[in-house]
Write a structure and sequence with these properties.
- This protein is an all-alpha fold.
- It has 2 domains: 149 residues; 34 residues.
- The chain has 10 helices and no strands.
- It starts with 7 loop residues before the first helix and ends with a helix.
Length: 192
């Protein structure tokens, strides 16, 4: 049996959408101008963020993550940001890898922590707490991990439910005032 002409990764990419393949090539090319690479990134972010997810979504997330090999800290910072904005849990392993890499630029690691918080990934809490509590960790990473932990705990905790109930109650109260006391009293309610 003759060996395959393509690697397993190339075979997977051949099955992907041609648009994603083209955007990935631009994004991962170190010879492309940074502005063109950013345009490719934001096009991939759109595909990665589709709700409900489509055939292109996971390929787009993988394409974004492939560019973490770039030496550009600015680009990698934006990669992490876009993965966090994807609202897709498939981004989590890539973001954890960046956050755990002590050799990575602190700006990139900070954005990976922030993205994990934005995704609300409870599975990352242990890592985020560990880095938050590590006195040897750079401040920007520690502080961002603290914010990410609080964001995840808020999203999955009682405080969020309490805030939703409070807002609902305030809306009911405002509507009640409007219906029973008229528009002038409603305005006074907002002022005081």
């Amino acid at each position: 049996m003759a060996p395959s002409a393509t690697t397993p990764e190339e075979s997977i990419m051949l099955a992907a959408d041609p648009q994603v393949i083209s955007l990935r090539k631009v994004l991962t090319s170190e010879t492309e101008p940074l502005a063109r690479r950013f345009r490719a990134l934001f096009s991939l972010k759109h595909l990665a963020s589709l709700s409900p997810p489509t055939f292109q979504t996971l390929f787009a997330i993988d394409a974004i993550a492939a560019a973490f090999d770039s030496p550009s800290a600015l680009l990698k910072h934006e990669l992490a940001y876009c993965l966090g904005q994807s609202r897709n849990a498939a981004s989590v392993p890539y973001l954890r890898r960046v956050l755990e890499d002590k050799a990575e630029d602190a700006m990139c690691r900070h954005e990976a922590a922030e993205a994990l918080g934005a995704l609300g990934d409870q599975g990352s809490l242990e890592l985020l707490r560990e880095l938050r509590d590590d006195e040897r960790e750079v401040d920007v990473v520690r502080e961002t991990c603290e914010i990410a932990v609080e964001r995840i705990e808020w999203e999955h905790g009682v405080k969020r439910a309490d805030e939703k109930l409070k807002k609902r109650y305030e809306l009911v109260r405002i509507n009640f005032n409007f219906e029973t006391k008229g528009p002038m009293k409603r305005r006074e309610t907002h002022i005081t």
